[in-house]
Design goal:
Order of helices and strands: EEEEHHEEEHHEEHHHHHHHEEHH
Number of strands: 11
Shape: elongated
Helix content: 25-40%
CATH topology of the largest domain: Transferase(Phosphotransferase), domain 1
Low-confidence stretches: 1-7, 331-396, 431-436, 438-466, 496-508
Largest sheet: 6 strands, antiparallel
CATH class of the largest domain: Mainly Alpha
Strand order of the largest sheet: 1-2-3-4-6-5
Radius of gyration: 40 Å
Mean pLDDT: 74
């Protein structure tokens, strides 16, 4: 029997500074993936990345709504709301980076509990609903940078958008269809946003949308968690809308004997068809529910979710651990980073010097040498400038390359200057034309002068004398143009010269 072929890990997609790994959830607007942030200095973090569906990424209205989600969610700071960390636009796609929560949605948990023939304990229900209501209240009270209320309304509160974390905290997610003052785009007339079975009657009637619709939706979630049944869902969308608008509310105690009777009154108020008949805000409803059901502690909720969804949570935790281990074992394969000064110096013979445009004045700073070393040893993916900014190769500024080659040219010029300095120390032989007395040879540097290499003692050796082969060339290069021949005695003292008027004739 042939062995089974080895399963290859799916290719990792790079988006900005994030690695996009396996898909863990999908919705009507986007998919959610496990992601990995790999930054400099070894910093890394596991995140959840929401990827807008390709057909929506080309629709300006959906793109604006997707960006709104990030803008609004970033203003909400509460333990019961999943934090939004970043937005990435790349390759005609949009990605929303969120805090990764190890947990399960209420919809998934409800199915697992129903499959076991059980119901969710009342203190667990209380903890989840109270946490979600507190998070919604924080969203409703969110303000912009100037302190002006944003009037955020989630409009899509549902079991799919509530997570019960393995840490015992319930969190609300997905403000993708939220509506607030100052939105970048407005919902088209007659277009519904959200899940029909969790929408308030005024949303169907195109009435004013307020935070009260979130209280209404949270009340539906509470009813379904208590009974284990759907409240308004029907076989068709039309039937669902009709039930929301006209059906008579059934108290939860009619479906589950033994529930506190106070729950009937709480849900009758939360599910009032007129917004004025509901709770004033989500915080008020949270206080009433907590007083009626009690609230389990974080540890109790964590223990319960582990007992219900333990295998699924462990499977996902193992997946995340494998991704983290892989990224830690080979971080440079995803995002190579070079520390300035750590790159090896290549010999001049390994450095090419293509023709470049003239160097601008602002490019002639003293960072050129360091930049040259970094360019010579950069990896194919990422380049680190002398100012420690990460730049992709295709975005590398031309002036950085010019700095590199200016540094190489400066090095070559320095070698030429040293050779010329050494040549000037030798006394040339006499020539036929009269010349001023040769300048004295340059003496060795004094003991307190700075050396060419930092920390190196000054050299006490005599100047280097050029070899006999190059002396004629030096003589011809140093000689001035020959003067017009005339008798030496007839010469006149040059103007401004301190030499005598008559010089003795010079003969070979």
């Amino acid at each position: 029997m042939n062995p089974e072929p080895e399963q290859r890990a799916p290719a990792v997609k790079r988006i900005g500074r994030y690695a996009l790994h396996r898909e863990i959830a999908a919705g009507g607007m986007a998919t959610v993936h496990i992601g990995r942030l790999n930054a400099q200095a070894g910093f890394s973090r596991t995140v959840a990345i929401k990827r807008l569906h390709a057909q929506f990424a080309k629709d300006p209205e959906f793109v604006a709504m997707f960006l709104d989600e990030a803008r609004l969610a970033a203003r909400i700071h509460h333990p019961n709301v999943v934090s939004t960390l970043d937005v990435v636009a790349e390759h005609d796609e949009l990605f929303l980076v969120m805090e990764y929560i190890q947990g399960e949605s209420v919809s998934r948990v409800a199915r697992l509990v129903a499959a076991r023939g059980e119901r969710i304990p009342l203190p667990i229900v209380g903890a989840v609903i109270v946490g979600v209501l507190n998070g919604l209240h924080a969203a409703h009270e969110a303000r912009d940078e100037r302190g002006v209320p944003l009037h955020v309304v989630h409009r899509d509160v549902s079991p799919q958008n509530i997570l019960i974390g393995a840490d015992g905290i319930a969190r609300g997610i997905d403000f993708g269809v939220a509506r607030a003052a100052g939105r970048l785009q407005e919902t088209r007339t007659g277009q519904l946003k959200g899940k029909l079975a969790y929408m308030a009657p005024e949303q169907f009637r195109e009435k004013e949308i307020t935070r009260s619709v979130d209280v209404y939706a949270a009340s539906i979630v509470l009813w379904e968690m208590l009974t284990g049944k759907r409240l308004f869902a029907a076989d068709s969308q039309a039937a669902t809308i009709e039930r929301v608008l006209y059906s008579e509310l059934q108290p939860p105690t009619d479906h589950v004997p033994g529930l506190p009777r106070a729950l009937d009154a709480i849900l009758a108020r939360g599910l009032a068809r007129a917004p004025a008949g509901r709770f004033a805000d989500a915080r008020e409803m949270a206080g009433v529910v907590e007083a009626c059901l009690g609230v389990a502690s974080m540890n109790e909720v964590a223990a319960w979710i582990a007992a219900v969804a333990g295998p699924d949570l462990k499977k996902r935790a193992d997946l995340v651990a494998a991704i983290e281990l892989e990224s830690e074992a080979a971080p440079m394969a995803i995002d190579s980073v070079i520390a300035i000064g750590a790159a090896p110096l290549l010999p001049p013979s390994r450095i090419s010097t293509p023709t470049l445009p003239p160097l601008a004045p602002e490019d002639t700073d003293d960072t050129a040498a360091t930049t040259a070393l970094t360019i010579a040893a950069r990896p194919p993916e990422v380049f680190v400038e002398a100012r420690s900014s990460v730049v992709a190769p295709e975005e590398l500024p031309k002036r950085s390359r010019r700095r590199a080659f200016v540094a190489v040219g400066a090095f070559v010029a320095a070698l030429v200057a040293v050779a010329a300095l050494a040549a000037s120390t030798s006394t040339p032989p006499p020539v036929d034309v009269a010349m001023p007395a040769p300048a004295p040879a340059i003496s060795a540097a004094p003991a307190n002068s700075s050396s060419f290499h930092a920390g190196e003692a000054p050299s006490a050796e005599p100047p280097i004398v050029p070899s006999a082969e190059i002396q004629p060339a030096i003589k011809r290069a140093a000689a001035p143009p020959p003067a017009t021949a005339r008798p030496p005695a007839a010469r006149k003292k040059p103007a401004g010269s301190n030499l005598p008027a008559d010089l003795p004739s010079e003969r070979n």
